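ok so i was messing around last nite and threw this chain in just to see what happens. nothing serious, just curious
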Amino acid sequence: MTIENVRQPRNIPAPRVVDVSRPGRPLTVEIDAAEAAELILTVATVLVDEDLDTYELEAARIEAIRAATPPELLDRAAELLPEKTAALLLGLVYTTPKPRTVSAFLEHLAATDAVDIRLNLLGYYVRGHNVTEPETIKRAAEGDPEAIAELLEATKEYVDAKKCAAIEKAVLMDPAEGKRALIEFLRGWNEHVLPQIAPADPSLAERDAEAKRELVKSVPPEQVVERLAPGIQWVPGPEIDRVVLFPAYAPRPWVYMSEYKRVKIFCYPITLDRDRTAPDDPAELVRIYKALGDEKRLKLLKLLQAGPISLTEAAQEVGLAKSTTHHHLAILRQAGFVLIREGDDTYNLRPDLRPEPGALLQQYLGT
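result:
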């Protein structure tokens, strides 16, 4: 048979794929200033009871803000929004009509069903990160005693007895009374506390968001997150349709993450007001050495040297509660040593751009 008589293969069309795992629109990214987000993050920041010196506000400033705040307002904050649960209201910030001011947020809360507010505060909409089954949380929010007991029992794994008691008090409150008290509290917090923490330039958050929006035009969504939220590796799963990033001033350098249905929310540290760190500025050096100045954190770094580890495994290895271990890992993350891979919540050593304390010290000393 001659070559001319060989039947040529027919052209095979390129494969075509239909992905039905993410219904609706493709993944989108929004970067937006939200005064309401700043309000609730100031609550979490002022209520913090450990490692105050890791905050850019610094311990002395946070303590001065507490001293200047009416005691009854602080007591109400601890009662209604214990253990940084204020951040669970980020979903309701997201659903607030733009420009998401405090007044618009309070109006939105007033129009929201009391049980739905309770569902937000119990983490019902943070799918994949619940302390117990979503259905149990739903029944607890509706007042089912058995579900409340189950939720509180699961919570004990993450927080100490004192904090668990505060959460129990909050969840046992009548939802309508809880809603009324929350709105009244936030009004008072907006009046007395937010002005003490807000940046001198009221346009800072909006200008920071505007500057960061340029990233959306040039990089994939997960890279936007990695560049704005230090130490976060995020791969969007099929359950997420939208990423929303709010610039935050009060909790810097901490990153807050939350979810609301099919929306992933990140509150990233504002950087527009910072100049590039000068060689003789000790701030970066202090932050890194503080992160290393704890025996448990050094042990965690040693564990991570062997490979990625989950929060549960890390807590077991160092003999601490999950909440305490999570906090230690977060300090290592914001110092640049550790990455958390969002989705499966595993921690690993940062393979690139890991800070070198010795080199930084030499640079600072000029040797």
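not much to say yet. Residues 175-192 form the longest helix (18 residues).
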